[in-house]
UniProtKB/TrEMBL annotation:
MF terms in GO: DNA binding
GO biological process, one term: regulation of DNA-templated transcription
Full protein name: LuxR family two component transcriptional regulator
Keyword Chaperone: no
Native species: Stackebrandtia endophytica
4-aspartylphosphate: modified positions: 54
Keyword set, alphabetical order: DNA-binding, Phosphoprotein, Transcription, Transcription regulation
Residue ranges annotated for the Response regulatory domain, each copy included: 3-121
Residue ranges of domain HTH luxR-type in the record: 148-213
PANTHER family associated with the record: TRANSCRIPTIONAL REGULATORY PROTEIN NARL-RELATED (PTHR43214:SF24), TWO-COMPONENT RESPONSE REGULATOR (PTHR43214)
Amino acid sequence: MIRAVVADDQRSVRRAFTAFLHDTDDIRVVGESVDGPTAVSLAREHHADVVLMDVRMPGGDGITATERLAGPRVARPIPVVVITTFDLDEYLFGALEAGAVGFLLKDAPPPEIVAAVRAAASGDALVSPRVTRRVLTEFARRRPRRPDSTRGPELTPREHDVLAAIRRGLSNAEIAAELFIETGTVKTHVSNVIRKLGVRDRVQAIVWAFENDHLFASERKTS
């Protein structure tokens, strides 16, 4: 059973998320919070597997809470999926730096939010396709380019295909279906890509791909 915490200052939003997460057979909401600090406490107290985190909460923002739960200095991180009303929000960039494994819009259909919770719990990530390019392109533009960014890593052709699919916001299952390979094989390729890129996680791999957009010129020409 996946244990989830929902953090949002709007009661109606919390209750809506809790309702359709409880409609599943494998997810239970073990805590609801109106601010970031309480979300951190509840997540740790109930050993949550995933936290759905709003970014703007007057009692304590979701970015600081995300860093406390999933930042690079956390020994045992708890996956955080950021939810927001805005599809291009300044706070989202901070959330990505803080360690969020994905983000969605609040008006995302229930199946998409359920999929994001399941993906985060399994070590995967789901970034809403509606906002992937806009948000991550801007995020990559703001970050300083690395000195070696003109060269690509030593990826195999299949690993490059997987990275290109990750960059488009596809889940492991979607990548497996598109490339006609097993989901387990996709997970292996994703792990290899993350290791070769020298990044922290899947979302950071997406950011790297947008920072190095020139490496995917052929995909754009053929699409």
